[in-house]
């Protein structure tokens, strides 16, 4: 039998790996776990790594569908809502009455809203996380293929048939992620997140710079206050569907709440975690919104109503080809890190469950130390469960990415699936429960109004993305992706 203390210890092992120690060690936090060392900068790096991903590349297309007024307004509104609800969620890290920590998003939901909501949250959160991983695999492969195509266009001309298969790149990325997935836990990802965050600024800056140069040179294309105009080749119905998908793309670009609690759990106990997390939220969202506005607005000004679905791989830019290549390399490096940031909650959930179910199994619990290069100074800790399960996890994600490589519509669907429940619904209802806000009070009405409006946007985005995916599937042959 497994008693409560042992179960807690096993859960901690999943979160902290071999650093977990039984009580009595002086380097422990107030909950008996090894002292957390995170700060506002590492938290901001994790957030930026999670937010500025593939979504930023579709913003010029999104603004083109909505136009200057609705496009800019949507970016600002989503930014404000995300910042507000993220602050509410940060207050849910510790219990209002006991001060007990919630180590994961799901645990916060369970302790504030009960078991049924816990199950519903888990289904949405884990589906969204796995969807994000698939989305990042697709995007990284598109960027890798774009490097090959860029070099081909440079050598053979812009009209050359430079068709490239994405599948080898997806397989290569999958092999790399199998190795990186052996990083034991979230607390070992700080360096990877910082590198990824730097890369995100790099490719965003290149995209903005190239678009700005196009505008300054006078080669910017036609734009409109209301976006892409109905006419030949675009019906009113298709315009509406595109607008719905644009809402989903923009929502996707602000999605990170599903790992906010896990990020907050890396912070030092002093200053109070919720204050540091709110500051990190503000810094990260202000930074990303600035980049989003530049990418979306300058990209739209450069390409007008013909803005590509992916700013750097849609080949609105051909030259300088080497700079486009550098930007796509930055995208790949960033997404390699983001893949791990979104994978860790899934890894931890399964492994903690397995340890709880079979605590005496060496296959599950034993850690084997392997010396690297024959040196006892550099040793790698290997767990058989971690090796087998995480490898299978990456393989399945790679195969699914090869089956459904639809960039914009996948982003819109993921945005619709994850933004409303994880960024809005659960944070608002946890905050209401924790602060005991009375029904029909002015504050309660205001929170529910935000909740309802975001639900309508999510439903519209889901409908638009499903319509787009259905069109893609009609013309798609699995495992034969070339563009």
From TrEMBL:
<keyword id="KW-1133">Transmembrane helix</keyword>
<dbReference type="GO" id="GO:0015293">
    <property type="term" value="F:symporter activity"/>
</dbReference>
<dbReference type="Pfam" id="PF01490">
    <property type="entry name" value="Aa_trans"/>
</dbReference>
<keyword id="KW-1003">Cell membrane</keyword>
<keyword id="KW-0029">Amino-acid transport</keyword>
<keyword id="KW-0472">Membrane</keyword>
<feature type="transmembrane region" description="Helical">
    <location>
        <begin position="322"/>
        <end position="342"/>
    </location>
</feature>
<dbReference type="InterPro" id="IPR013057">
    <property type="entry name" value="AA_transpt_TM"/>
</dbReference>
<feature type="transmembrane region" description="Helical">
    <location>
        <begin position="126"/>
        <end position="147"/>
    </location>
</feature>
<feature type="transmembrane region" description="Helical">
    <location>
        <begin position="410"/>
        <end position="428"/>
    </location>
</feature>
<feature type="transmembrane region" description="Helical">
    <location>
        <begin position="387"/>
        <end position="404"/>
    </location>
</feature>
<feature type="transmembrane region" description="Helical">
    <location>
        <begin position="40"/>
        <end position="61"/>
    </location>
</feature>
<keyword id="KW-0769">Symport</keyword>
<keyword id="KW-0812">Transmembrane</keyword>
<feature type="domain" description="Amino acid transporter transmembrane">
    <location>
        <begin position="37"/>
        <end position="469"/>
    </location>
</feature>
<feature type="transmembrane region" description="Helical">
    <location>
        <begin position="189"/>
        <end position="213"/>
    </location>
</feature>
<dbReference type="GO" id="GO:0005886">
    <property type="term" value="C:plasma membrane"/>
</dbReference>
<feature type="transmembrane region" description="Helical">
    <location>
        <begin position="67"/>
        <end position="90"/>
    </location>
</feature>
<feature type="transmembrane region" description="Helical">
    <location>
        <begin position="283"/>
        <end position="302"/>
    </location>
</feature>
<comment type="similarity">
    <text>Belongs to the amino acid/polyamine transporter 2 family. Amino acid/auxin permease (AAAP) (TC 2.A.18.2) subfamily.</text>
</comment>
<keyword id="KW-0813">Transport</keyword>
<dbReference type="GO" id="GO:0006865">
    <property type="term" value="P:amino acid transport"/>
</dbReference>
<feature type="transmembrane region" description="Helical">
    <location>
        <begin position="449"/>
        <end position="469"/>
    </location>
</feature>
<protein>
    <recommendedName>
        <fullName>Amino acid transporter transmembrane domain-containing protein</fullName>
    </recommendedName>
</protein>
